[in-house]
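quick one before i forget lol
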Amino acid sequence: MARSWVEIDEKRLVENYTTVREATGADTEVLAVVKANAYGHGLEQCAAALARAGAQWLGVADAAEGVRARRVLEAAGITPDVVSVLAMCGVMCGEASVIAEHGLTPVVWTMEQVAELAEAARALKATLRVHVEIDTGMSRQGVRPGAELVELLGVIERGGLELDGVCTHFSSAEVAGSERTREQKKRFETAVEQVREAGLKPRWVHAGSSSSVDVGGDAAWLEELAKSVGARAMVRSGIALYGYALPAEGADSHIRAKLRPVMTWKTRVLDVREVAAGEAIGYNATYVARKAMRMVLLPVGYADGLRRELSATNERAGGWVMVRGERAPIVGRVSMNLTTVDVTGIDGVKAGDEVVLLGDGITADDHARIAGTIAYEVLCGVRA
């Protein structure tokens, strides 16, 4: 029996996807990001649900995730011409043949990536579409506008590859009116113009994320930019699909209030015990009972993704879980495989009772706030 498990609400997932689509408008496609195992939610289940909901693009991290996504789609009778799979984090040496064989669309930005892909496409006698990422200011992945881009475009064309898309990534999308985003937009415009001057005609121009949709203001700009090269606009939405968004800065949120968490993470009570006043709880006696308490032991800890920062001392409150629909605070330190929780005042709790670790009443945002991180990391860290 699993000591903890995750339940995925497909109805909420589809509703969140619909919310994002409605916010972007009919002229902009939404790429549904299912990388990092669908942000910890399970790639297979989420990819299938999003494809059924009408997603024409799925975004994965790499070739291995792309193969998983493609197998899910094939099992559902969905072919590459119906739903495309974008490998967003580049091509590692040796991955090109896998990408070509499974009809994936890779993001590229180096000569080496393009050369290996061209060779794999020739070997399979296949046409391989690629998306070129432009580094507009993150210095992470992407080719810089200017001579580097022109040279890369030439290699793509001579190599028999098809330039299907041009994209970039904004570093501060959640900040409305960001000067950094304005600068990145200008650089992206320059790059797209270089693509037009090279005579290449991509089908897609994409930028932006869940935060871009939430803050708003980029849709018209992206649509006009795409039209300038005869392409369609696309945004890449990830975290919003799963019910979360970074706080919008400097603008009203467009979608955050409409999103609902998709994941519920549960466990069961392992043991119940009475603790007398003055008894220490957990490692290093960081919590000492000030009065008689009723405790439960949960068979999960930081090895399962329950953050150690949720620990509590007598001076500092930590996280909480939901027991019988009520908040039950964590007390003492979250350890590797076990966590102690105070259920004093919650009647009838017994071994085997379900406990909600994440879900209604306790969200990834709650965990992130206490742990000093973001919901993305909390969700991706769940190992049920």
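fyi Residues 367 and 373 are 8 Å apart (CA to CA).
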